[in-house]
């Protein structure tokens, strides 16, 4: 059965003055899939995420979330979307629970404690820590709370900017496992990263970006880590040539 994409970029193009940040980008991410965007600084990863979030408008082309065009159907697109920033913003003096309740109220979702606790358990958020002030949370815990906010909202797609950067290896491994389980639960994930090896662990597809284009779209299972690294370096060398 053909899966309808939860996230879709159709000839998505963004120009900042003379800079062509995104150049007719096409991709689709279905429920249960994770697309990792890999690319050097300036390749267009963050611009892609910002266009889906509606932070900036496309010059041409479309960004669709659950079939809703971000430009013309912004509220419906946003309702289907979750976002986990590189540094998840929380109110430091509020507890994790109070932060979750606040963000759930913004999304117009009443807090269902049983549902919340099931999500926290799924994300392996440390038991009991949810009642501590957010200022005490590690980066990994903040990422998990960001994911919990998105899941409590019922987001069909979650965008993550550099989710494993700055995590120690154990926390990164844990988050990778959590992301895989989240996708397996039926959410579509779009992840921007510089980390080739983590991308291989997280992704069902890897898109290599260069100059605002996706120059390769790889099944990570088809390559070993070193093969993927070599392919990536070849694409980057082409850039320099
Ligand atoms: N607000 C802006 N105004 C002008 N140019 C911008 C703006 N945002 C991004 N750009 C340019 O668009 C291009 C793509 O940038 P983008 O931030 O999307 O890349 P990236 O792949 O996310 O890089 P990084 O890995 O450094 O985050 C770059 O040339 C960048 O300088």
TrEMBL record:
<dbReference type="GO" id="GO:0005524">
    <property type="term" value="F:ATP binding"/>
</dbReference>
<dbReference type="GO" id="GO:0016887">
    <property type="term" value="F:ATP hydrolysis activity"/>
</dbReference>
<dbReference type="InterPro" id="IPR027417">
    <property type="entry name" value="P-loop_NTPase"/>
</dbReference>
<protein>
    <submittedName>
        <fullName>ABC-2 type transport system ATP-binding protein</fullName>
    </submittedName>
</protein>
<keyword id="KW-0547">Nucleotide-binding</keyword>
<dbReference type="InterPro" id="IPR003439">
    <property type="entry name" value="ABC_transporter-like_ATP-bd"/>
</dbReference>
<keyword id="KW-0813">Transport</keyword>
<feature type="domain" description="ABC transporter">
    <location>
        <begin position="7"/>
        <end position="236"/>
    </location>
</feature>
<dbReference type="InterPro" id="IPR017871">
    <property type="entry name" value="ABC_transporter-like_CS"/>
</dbReference>
<dbReference type="InterPro" id="IPR051782">
    <property type="entry name" value="ABC_Transporter_VariousFunc"/>
</dbReference>
<dbReference type="InterPro" id="IPR003593">
    <property type="entry name" value="AAA+_ATPase"/>
</dbReference>
<keyword id="KW-0067">ATP-binding</keyword>
<dbReference type="Pfam" id="PF00005">
    <property type="entry name" value="ABC_tran"/>
</dbReference>
């Amino acid at each position: 059965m053909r899966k309808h994409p939860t996230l879709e970029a159709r000839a998505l193009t963004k120009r900042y003055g003379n800079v062509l940040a995104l150049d007719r980008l096409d991709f689709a991410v279905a429920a249960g899939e994770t697309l990792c965007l890999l690319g050097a600084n300036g390749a267009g990863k963050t611009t892609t995420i910002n266009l889906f979030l509606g932070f900036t408008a496309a010059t041409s082309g479309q960004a669709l979330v659950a079939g809703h065009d971000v430009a013309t159907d912004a509220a419906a697109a946003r309702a289907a979307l979750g976002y986990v920033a590189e540094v998840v913003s929380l109110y430091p003096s509020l507890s994790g629970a109070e932060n979750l309740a606040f963000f759930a109220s913004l999304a117009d979702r009443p807090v269902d404690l049983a549902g919340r606790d099931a999500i926290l358990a799924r994300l392996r958020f440390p038991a009991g820590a949810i009642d501590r002030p957010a200022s005490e949370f590690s980066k990994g815990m903040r990422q998990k709370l960001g994911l919990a906010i998105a899941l409590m909202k019922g987001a069909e797609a979650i965008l993550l900017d550099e989710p494993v950067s700055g995590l120690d290896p154990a926390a990164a491994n844990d988050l990778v496992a959590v992301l895989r389980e989240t996708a397996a639960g039926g959410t579509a994930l779009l992840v921007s990263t510089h980390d080739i090896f983590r991308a291989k662990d997280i992704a069902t597809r890897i898109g290599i970006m260069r100059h605002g284009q996706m120059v390769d779209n790889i099944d990570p299972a088809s390559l070993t880590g070193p093969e993927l690294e070599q392919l990536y370096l070849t694409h980057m060398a082409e850039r320099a040539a």
